[in-house]
Amino acid sequence: MNQLTEQTLVTVTLPESSPERSGDAANRADDDSVFSLRGVNVHYGSFHAVRDITMEIPRRQITALIGPSGCGKSTLLRCFNRMNDLITTAKVSGSVIYNGENLYDSYVDAVEVRRRIGMVFQKPNPFPKSIYDNIAFGPKVNGIKGNMDDLVEQALRDAALWDEVKDKLKQNAYGLSGGQQQRMCIARAIAVQPDVILMDEPCSALDPIASARIEDLMTELKAQYTIVIVTHNMQQAARVSDRTAFFTVEVDEARSSRTGILVEFDTAQRIFTNPSDSRTEAYITGRFG
Amino acid sequence: MAAAAPPANPASITTLAVERSLASRKRDWLGQVFQVVLLLSLILSLAIIVFLLSNVLGGAWRVWTDRGTDFLTEGGSRQAEAAGVWQGIRGTLTLVGFVVLLAFPIGIASAIYLEEYAPDNTLTKFINVNIRNLTGVPSVVYGLLGLAVFVRTFGLDRNDEGGLTGGKSVISAGLTLAVLVLPIVIITSAEAIRAVPRSIREAGYGVGASRWEVTRMLVLPSAAPGILTGTVLAISRAMGEAAPILLIGANTGFFSSGNQSFVEQLQGTFTALPAVIFGWARETSEFRDVTAAAIFVLLVITVLANGTAVWLRNRFEKQW
Amino acid sequence: MTQLTPMLPGPEPMSLRGSPRRRRKERSVHVVLLSAALISILISVGIVYSLVGNAIDFLQKIDLSQLWTTGYFPRRGLFDLKTLFIGSLLITGVALVVAGPIGLGAAIYLSEYASPRMRRICKPILEVLAGIPSVVIGFFALTWIAPNIVQRIFSQSGTFSLAAAGIGVGILIIPIIASVAEDAMRAVPLALREASYGLGARKITTSVRVVLPAAVSGIVAAFILGISRAIGETLVVALAAGGSGGSVFTTDITGPGQTVTAAIASLSFGSDQPAGDDAAFQSLYFLGIILFIFTLLLNLAGDVFVRRTRQHY
């Protein structure tokens, strides 16, 4: 048993190694990791979107998922809070262990999972309601106790938006600028007091200044939250992430299918300065992707 | 402008020639005739409406000047001069009540199921195909359904007397109309629900809302204007249908009298505006004007219903 | 085993179970919504069940030769189907002669020629035409079309005629043909038109030679759906085609006649309906199932063509 546990610890740093593990040990994550993925595959119908991903996501750090488009990084991110459940054809196999519990166990309630593991999307997607109601929606449906006004204020302060919107809380959220909308979406995610925040290319629809503010916000938030971010922007990944995972697409010419695989997962510094895989190097130096 | 100034050099002569050849349109007789014919067919279809309405208005005006509001408050009669539409109006409004109470909740719930809950399986596909086909079933067939099921199966007890629905009754007709418009309500509501962007749903799920919470608090409010439009369509369809309620046994006679209980009234005989119109249209030509007037009343009620819905929809939309 | 425990992060097990109350609520909502959706299937089952049962009863009561005689007089035991089929066919034919060119012409104009503003004004008016109850058109056909159009063209025609009813039905299906055909033509990509103009083609050539062929599936669908509606139309025919009580076999559109729908109507409307379980009454259901099958097939065919347009582009 001891041996097995050691092996688990080793794989934290060497994620490419064998995904097979005994079930018992598989359910024990390292204290420092929030998620352990074991042999995760995602299919959309007959399309194999992501193959055999095994990785550990460290607590209170920013983990970036990078790679060319179509490499399945967004698909994988949506396994972290069972967002893939909403696509009827999607099928996830393998296990996503979150604090020792497999998210895909039959007893697990996807709604509870998403309360704990919040998400910020590619395009800012406010509800067509007031700023206040946007933030208050999550706490309300989840029955979070406390003074709602205080809760809204705290969430907006944490998202560095309070000073800009405190006088127009009752106005429609669509009146905000794109960057403000995205920070409001982050505040909305924070308001339900999650443990993890998943961000799916949160800056892709924003201008550089707005993006920079979101990046600053992320670095502040990691003191409290574990953040997993998918990004197209390598500089962004290099700036904000502590650990970086590089994915690529494996094209099967014969079956004309494209499958996403994990190539390398390491500290951001290693990935961006001294990657061990030639494909990673080719990507970060801009030779493909 | 180039034509006004005499050309100074060969280059501008070329320009001039090109401009002229582009400006002088070759006469395209065929094309113009074609366009006029197309326009005529459009105008003709619009003219039919205008003509029809003016015809109806003419008759309605004569009745109004002769009898005033008396026409609205009188019941049916064998004499054209004494016949009124009050019972028809009352019947039509009662039947609309059934549609609102039955077809709307069931229809909207079905649409929610199909758009938000249904898994991608054979049953769902079957339900969808089935609903699409139901919209194409002629209304007279719905009348036969009502006749067989509501009038006879549920309407007659063991002694062949009034059962649960009372046979040829308000209840039977109301249920039949509700069944008839249900597919319309489902399809239009489903379209409205489908038009709500996915990102709104994702945002809701992303903060840990359940499916019903997302549906009730985010999707339905956004889809409400579209759903409302569909329900109004359904109401106007229900108000105009004559064939099914005639099959159920609407008569041009009269509604039950006032000293019966509410349930007894619902189990009693009935009439509705389209049935009144049908009955009068088959009478002698003395009934021409009152028929036109009854049609006018039906159209006015329909327009009022539509107008209310448009007004409600605009109010709804402002909130968002 | 035990010495490994300190290495666990230590959350309470199964903490992701969620609130049972919320899950229960979610499940009951699901059941309620599913039951609502199943009602539509119940309706179809109800239609088929009530029609088929009674239709079989009817067929057992009569001799099959009664379905092929000299006319349709249910009270005298004459249920000639060809009288009704030819009647329906004639009505549909007249309706298509009226609505086909007008509807298609209006569709081409709205799709290819009309300015956006004109379209904005005209489309709602066409929708108004679509919303006029058929009993109103029936009255119009009887009191205006018959004396002012049909009797002027065919002087031998009387108050009731298949032609007047057919024109009335045609008015009813103009909006259906126009809107489905217009949708199909608007779905033709602009690039195709631009390619045609780029070759120097005129507008008429582009419309007739490029847009119409590209939209042909949708136009076929428009006609099929129009035909389906025309076959199912009841009140216009019941009012304007005469033939209450019955009709001898006829192919003359200037005279009265009977259709499948009008036969159902004339048997069941009014105070002198045949009662209970006699053959005349049950023939209603037999005609109903014929009508149901016909329109179902037409609608399925229309659907196939509508979907084909969508797949193209």
Beta-strand fraction estimate of chain A: 25-35%
Number of strands of chain B: 0
Strand content of chain B: under 5%
User: In which range does the helix fraction of chain B lie?
Assistant: over 70%
What is the CATH topology classification name of the domain at 90-272 in chain B? MetI-like fold
In whole angstroms, how far apart are the ends of chain A?
A: 42 Å
Architecture of chain A, CATH level 2?
A: 3-Layer(aba) Sandwich
Number of helices of chain B: 13
Describe the largest sheet of chain A: 6 strands, mixed
The succession of helices and strands of chain B, N to C, reads HHHHHHHHHHHHH
Strand order of the largest sheet of chain A: 6-7-8-3-9-10
Poorly predicted regions of chain B: 1-5
* Name of the CATH first level of chain A: Alpha Beta
Spans of chain A with pLDDT under 50 lasting ≥5 residues? 1-30
The CATH homology group name of the domain at 90-272 in chain B: MetI-like
Note down, in words, how this protein is organized.
The complex is a heterotrimer of chains A (289), B (320) and C (313). By secondary structure, chain A is an alpha/beta fold. Chain A is built from twelve helices and ten strands. In chain A, strands 6-7-8-3-9-10 form a six-stranded mixed β-sheet. A four-stranded antiparallel β-sheet of chain A has the order 2-1-4-5. In chain A, helix 8 (178-190) runs parallel beside helix 9 (208-221). The radius of gyration of chain A is 19 Å and the shape is globular. Residues 1-30 of chain A have low confidence and may be disordered. Chain B has helices spanning 10-23, 29-67, 70-73, 86-117, 122-136, 139-153, 170-194, 198-206, 211-240, 243-248, 262-266, 273-281, 288-319. Chain B is mainly α. In chain B, helix 4 (86-117) packs across helix 12, helix 8 (198-206) runs antiparallel to helix 9 and helix 9 runs antiparallel to helix 13. Chain B has a domain at 90-272: MetI-like (MetI-like fold), CATH 1.10.3720. Chain B has 13 helices and no strands. Helices cover 73% and strands 0% of the residues of chain B. Residues 1-5 of chain B have low confidence and may be disordered. Chain C is mainly alpha-helical and 313 residues long. Chain C has a domain at 80-263: MetI-like (MetI-like fold), CATH 1.10.3720. Chain C is built from eleven helices and three strands; from the N terminus they run αββααααααααβαα. In chain C, strands 2-1-3 form a three-stranded antiparallel β-sheet. The longest helix of chain C has 42 residues, at 20-61. Chain C is flat. Chain C starts with 19 loop residues before the first helix and ends with a helix. Chains in contact: A-B, A-C, B-C. The interface between B and C is large, with 80 and 88 residues.
